[in-house]
Task: inverse folding
């Protein structure tokens, strides 16, 4: 068998073409784990459940990820990378700082549009959001991975942009909380999708016009920050 190694996402990267089936198996285990961990939590999810959902055998989890914890952490690293992609964070090119209010608003609008499209429309986000929510409610070592690799970096950047818009220091608690609130508003469109759909008299997915309205509402909140007075 050809040498294998774990890539940056904790997945298995294989050396030769014939081993692609192994890479696919590792990917299926991660997808199955992501879904089940989000639904039942780490303790409530067994390796047998994951293996059956991935149409694999229990030994494959130990083979690729050492154990259930190794798989869970690999999934956390994968989610962290995908979230950085959504927010437009390139590891090789850090986000540019805004020099004035208009530039800060433009950058914030771009981030909001990316987030809304991902959280309101992309099926992938639904697979990992419940796991992320569980980790925020009851943090484990996986939370440290998510926080250090994505949450902190994104939150700090949003806070700096909002500080420019509000003409305040990015270290002020009010500014940090405003950044957290903006992120929370968008995430809740996914978490609370069913009550909102029912309230709107809709079923299934958010139609494009609703997604457009969500963008407009959140962006209007961003612009309102420019008129928030100190005190």
Result:
């Amino acid at each position: 068998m050809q040498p294998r190694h774990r890539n940056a996402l904790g997945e298995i990267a294989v050396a030769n073409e014939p081993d692609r089936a192994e890479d696919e198996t590792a990917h299926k285990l991660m997808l199955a784990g992501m879904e089940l961990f989000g639904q039942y939590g780490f303790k409530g999810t067994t390796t047998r459940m994951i293996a059956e959902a991935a149409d694999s055998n229990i030994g494959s989890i130990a083979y690729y990820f050492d154990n259930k914890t190794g798989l869970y952490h690999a999934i956390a690293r994968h989610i962290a990378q995908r979230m950085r992609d959504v927010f437009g964070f390139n590891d090789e090119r850090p986000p540019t700082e805004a020099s004035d209010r208009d530039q800060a608003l433009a950058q914030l609008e771009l981030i909001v549009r990316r987030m809304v499209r991902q959280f309101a429309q992309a099926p992938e986000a639904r697979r990992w959001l419940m796991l992320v929510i569980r980790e925020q409610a009851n943090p484990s070592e996986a939370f440290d991975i998510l926080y250090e690799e994505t949450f902190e970096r994104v939150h700090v950047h949003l806070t700096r942009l909002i500080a420019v818009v509000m003409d305040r220091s990015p270290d002020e608690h009010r500014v940090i909380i405003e950044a957290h609130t903006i992120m929370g508003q968008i995430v809740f469109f996914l978490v609370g999708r069913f009550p909102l759909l029912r309230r709107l008299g809709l079923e299934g997915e958010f139609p494009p016009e609703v997604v457009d309205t969500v963008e407009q509402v959140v962006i209007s909140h961003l612009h309102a920050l420019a008129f928030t007075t100190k005190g």
